[in-house]
Amino acid sequence: MRVQSLSCLAMAGLVAAAMSISFTGSARAAACDEVWKPVCGTVNGSQHTFTNMCWAKTEKATKIHKGECKWK
Length: 72
Fold this sequence. Notes:
globular; alpha+beta
């Protein structure tokens, strides 16, 4: 019985650790969906149209606004 209690505590610790992981970089990209809700954002001084806000944040875009980028 004591072994089962320790096992449950160990599993609870692993679950808590997994829940505290934040998505960054390619891990976030794996979590982003492909729903087309375009946003325009700036990366390294250039404007890019991203599929949605999740993808823009994954690429660390700044100056993000809704809609596709307007090219001049």
